[in-house]
C-alpha cells in the first residue's frame, strides 16, 4: 500500500535475503581460516555447494559482483578479485544445479554491448525458468578500462547516462517477441506471426540497437534490474530505471534517511515505490553464543597480516599502505612508537585518541566485545584490523544477528540484506552457520518466509510482471 505521494505506508511481504558469493571469502585473509576454501581451481564445487545450501534455506538470490581487472595487490585486500568465474558463466552453471533460487549477475554497462547482454540474460532466464536478474555496473576504474583499450575513463555524467540507455535497450530487446508469436501451425506451414515480432530501432546519444532480439521473451518479461552505489548519480539511475538498489549506508540513521529519500525519488519518477527494494550488504560472523562468535572474530583478526607479522628471515610482505603504523597513528591522533601489536591499549593513551580513534575503539567493542581496560582488552592489533577492514561486520549469536536485521527492516532502513561470508567452509562464522542458525530465527519472527511462494525471481521479490511494451501500445485507448 502507498500514500498519496506514492510512498509505502506499511511493510508488505518478507525481508529480502540474498547472498553475495565470493568463493575466497569477503574477509581479507578468510582463506587462511582452518578448513577454508583457498584454491580457485575448485570454485565450481564451492559454487554448487553454496547455491544448494542457500536454496535449501529459501534465500531469494545469489549475487555475483564483478571486477574487470586483477593485480597481485588484491592478495591482502580483496583476494576474491584475484581470479573468479565470470558472473554469466556462474549463473548459467548454477541454473542447471538449482531449481528455485534467484541468480543475479553483474554486467558493466561501460564495457559490454546491450544486445549481447540482452541475448545472454534472456537465454539464461529461459534456461532457469525465470530466475535471473542483472546488476548494472557503470565502471569507473582505469585498470579495467585499459583491458578494453580505453585510454581514459569517461565522466560520471556520461557513464550514468549511457547506463540508462543500456537499460532501455535491454528492456526494448526483451520485448522483441510478443507472447503467441510462435503459432507453430504445421497444417499451413506458418511458424510465426510476423506481426508479433518487433524491431527496436533505438538510437541514443551513447548507445544504439536496431533489434529485434533472436531470443524469445524471457519468462519474467523484463528481468529485475539492480544498481549498486551510494552516489547521487547511482541513486538517480536506480530511482528511474531499477527494481533494486544495493546500498551501503555507514550507520542505521543514514540508512533510514537514504532509503526514505530513495523512495521519494522513485515516486517522483511516477513509479510505484512499494515495488522498489533497497538491499544492503552485511558480513555476519555467527555462532551459537556471542562469546563463541567473538572467538571466531578474534581468530580472523589474527589472520590479517600486519607489519612485523612476517616470518623471521623472510622478506617482508607487501602490505597495503593503510596497515602501516604511521597511518594508524594518524587515525588515532597519537604516536605509536615501540608498541607490540598484541599489547593491550592503555586507558591513558586511549583517552588521547581523536574522534576517529574513538570510533575505532567502538568498532572493536561492537565486533569483539573488547574494551579498553576491560577483562577482554582492546589490543593494537584489533585497532589495526578495524581500520584496515572497514567491512559491514556483525558478530554475535543468532539472536544478535536477527535483532539487527529486524531493527533495520522494521524501521524502514532497508528492505533486506545480502549476506557476505568471511570464508567458504563450515563451522562457526561460516555461511552454513548463518543458514543453520539465523534463518530459522528470522522465520520464527515471521521476518522471512519458510518456503518459496513462486517460481521466478520476480515472485521471490514480490515484483509484478511487466507487460510487453508493444502490447501496452495496442491496449491504449484511442
- Structure classification: alpha/beta
Q: What's the CATH C level of the largest domain?
A: Alpha Beta
**Mean pLDDT across all residues, rounded?**
92
Sum up the overall morphology in one term: elongated
Q: Roughly what percent helix? A: 25-40%
Describe this structure in words.
With 478 residues, the chain is an alpha/beta fold.
Summarize this structure as a short list of keywords or feature phrases.
single chain, alpha/beta, TIM Barrel
SSE diagram, text form:
Elements: E1 16-20, H1 43-56, E2 61-64, H2 87-97, E3 102-108, H3 114-128, E4 132-137, H4 142-146, H5 156-174, E5 182-185, E6 190-192, E7 202-203, E8 208-209, E9 225-228, H6 232-241, E10 244-246, H7 252-268, E11 277-286, H8 290-303, H9 325-332, H10 347-350, H11 355-368, H12 380-388, E12 393-396, H13 398-410, E13 416-419, H14 431-444, H15 457-460, H16 469-475
